[in-house]
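Input record (one chain):
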Amino acid sequence: MPVGPYKTFADCVSAQRRKGLSEKAAGAYCGSIEKKMHKSKMNVQNTKELLIGMKATIEMILEYLEEVEDKEVMMSIDDTIPADLKALFSDENGISNEE
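The corresponding structure, as predicted from the sequence alone:
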């Protein structure tokens, strides 16, 4: 597995040793690079999962709005919002309808 610009962890350690670091210091340095890379990868994965969830929510809202638009008689908009959508926009989720 690549570590920064190096093909492997061992390549990274060897390069740092050639630069004068001890075995322990070279390992720690390469380990810190590897940790940063893993954290960055996890952030990308978490962001991707968040966006997928947001997309699903938006699609659900759009589908709901299309259904409401097709109704001839409109009730109060609050009466037509399904409970699961209301929960998404509740105060406990940090979203308020009040200005």
